[in-house]
Design a protein that fits this description.
The protein is mostly helical. It has a domain at 47-132. It is 69% helix and 0% strand. It has 6 helices and no strands. The termini are close together. 26% of the residues are buried.
Length: 137
């Protein structure tokens, strides 16, 4: 397989890039814009939102590799890198909130929820984005 055949089109990543920007926008909203509902805090609703946002981000970046002609081990390598990168992006967001966003703070549990979402998405990608043996691979 030539080097050109190993490349993935930028357009296949557009849903993931758009979602990345949506997540960035949501995470950078000032604290006063976010509604405070007591019973949602009791069920840790914001943590579930964090896990869902970052889990979907991870899955959307894994999807183009799933549909690629790469070998199974090569795809798994990218799934791992994507999950780690998304988790680190969650940590970076926490620092952005702490230092640059009015009314927002650093919350280690938010990053834990982000990382949990990334890990679950990695497991889903690994299980359901199985590769079939393509001819010639």
């Amino acid at each position: 397989m030539s080097n050109l055949e190993n490349r993935l089109s930028f357009y296949k990543f557009l849903p993931a890039i758009v979602w990345f920007l949506v997540v960035f926008f949501i995470m950078c909203l000032p604290g006063k814009v976010i509604p405070k509902v007591a019973w949602l805090n009791d069920i840790y609703f914001d943590k579930w939102i964090h896990a869902g946002l970052f889990g979907l981000l991870t899955l959307l970046f894994c999807l183009p590799f799933h549909k690629s002609p790469f070998a199974s081990s090569h795809r798994l390598y990218y799934f791992i890198k994507i999950a780690i990168a998304a988790s680190l992006w969650g940590l970076a967001i926490e620092f952005i909130q702490k230092y640059l966003i009015t009314g927002r703070t650093f919350d280690l549990l938010d990053w834990a929820a982000d990382s949990f979402g990334c890990f679950v998405a990695f497991l889903i990608a690994r299980k359901f984005f199985k590769t079939s043996k393509s001819p010639g691979l």
